[in-house]
Amino acid sequence: METIAEHSTVFPKLNVEEEPELGVTEIESMCMNCQENGMTRLLLTEIPFYKQVVIMSFSCEHCGYENNEIQPGGEIAPKGITICTKVATARDLNRRVVKSDFSSIRIEELDFEIPAQSQKGEVTTIEGIIDRVVRGLEQDQPVRRIQHPEAAEKIDEFITTLQGLKDLNSPFTLTLSDISGNSFIENPNAPLKDPATTISHFKRTKEQNHLLGIFTHDEVDECSEDTGSSPKKPKLAEVPEEVDSLLKPIKEGAWKLEELQGEVLQFQTQCPECSAQCETNMKVTTIPHFKEVVIMATVCDNCGSRTNEVKPGGGIEEQGVKIEVTVRGKIDFSRDVLKSDSCSLLVRELDCEVGAGALGGRFTTIEGLLTAMREQLIESTGMFMDSNDAETKERMDKFFGQLDEAIAGNKQLTIVLDDPSGNSYVQSLNDDGTPDTALRIIRYHRSFEQNEEMGLNDMKTENYGEEAMEEGTGDN
């Protein structure tokens, strides 16, 4: 028996080649301009190359007031994001921008910044961001010219400078920083690398997490104790065995390590496609000549989605690794490949670079890696494949044609896997220990920025126990 939600998704994807199945929800709400009732329309969708969003549009038929905003509909990203774009051409001004409520925007050359939470989230362009600033500055200029003529004159000069940015009198740098990680600037060269944009991620501070409504269990318990609103929840070790709990501790000696590694563990997760509850299977296995890995596979009974992910079982290696493999044809397609979620992928002949985390961690083959890259790009580029953008469509058609030739074994490729954590692997075809001429492995020392992104610069791994004892002795 099928349920109502079967084969449905809360956030349908935008695809211009298919009939849209987007459900718009209409809610009658009060107009803040004239106090009459207007109409709010909500659209839940997924933006290609980005994530799930809720688009809201309000209009009032009484006074004509209109407003629109966008809010992230998915989970808050694990880290904040900073996107720095060099704007030098009209094409750069037309880059689409998705900004959340928590994003701040800065124009370096003018030392000008739009603080976070000063504007609602929206879908716009770089030119649209400048236009909104100009409209805001011009709003009270007539009154300001009478009451404060000197301040009005300076604002007019600044507006002229902003207009010069739109006219591209000189290049400028726009930096978007978002602690929620839910902002995005379009790459007009997709799927190729964007030479004018740099993207970095940062770890949020405790205060920034609180601003997003993220609290640890200890902080929630402390707040409950202070307010007396609810009793403190017992810790896992304090829960009696006869009381049902989410996770029951395994009794000591009940399972040997070897037996536990041979078991397939199951736990409840949320489907990444339709957000329904589903089960994820997890198993620890060993890759020959490499290390232990954790394989996770998720199957959703609601929408039929199937995903798998592989994570290294060990820690971060002392050095990063860069693996170059020459794909000469079908003979190289059978190579086993372990790609961690921190590994980036480069296909030199196609001038295509896939950043770390784009394909996730996976254990597959060379052929499977190319096929997965093709499927994800086709799925993600529907927004940019419309007939109005002939240049982008022509570029994407040419790229996919070359990629199809490579998958068919008719085109030689050089694939480069660059993993700063050192947890990626490509199988050698020579089992007798002789060098594989089509496989080149280079180990390197990570840069400060790479260590910073993985949190290694702040990690103390030597003599920390002794220092803690010394501090305790000093306090006494």
UniProtKB/TrEMBL annotation:
GO terms for biological process: axon development; DNA replication; mRNA processing; positive regulation of gene expression; positive regulation of protein import into nucleus; RNA splicing. PANTHER family: ZINC FINGER PROTEIN ZPR1. The keyword rRNA-binding does not apply. Keywords: Cell projection, Cytoplasm, Differentiation, Metal-binding, mRNA processing, mRNA splicing, Nucleus, Repeat, Zinc, Zinc-finger. It comes from Anopheles sinensis (Mosquito). It is found in: Cell projection, Axon; Cell projection, Growth cone; Cytoplasm, Perinuclear region; Nucleus, Cajal body. It comes from the Eukaryota. Belongs to the ZPR1 family. The keyword Repeat applies. GO terms for cellular component: Cajal body; Gemini of Cajal bodies; growth cone; nucleolus; perinuclear region of cytoplasm. Its main location: other. InterPro entries: Znf_ZPR1, ZPR1, ZPR1_A/B_dom, ZPR1_jr_dom, ZPR1_Znf1/2. Residues 29-187, 269-428 form the Zinc finger ZPR1-type domain. Pfam families: jr-ZPR1 (PF22794), Zn_ribbon_ZPR1 (PF03367). One of its GO terms (molecular function) is zinc ion binding. This is Zinc finger protein ZPR1.
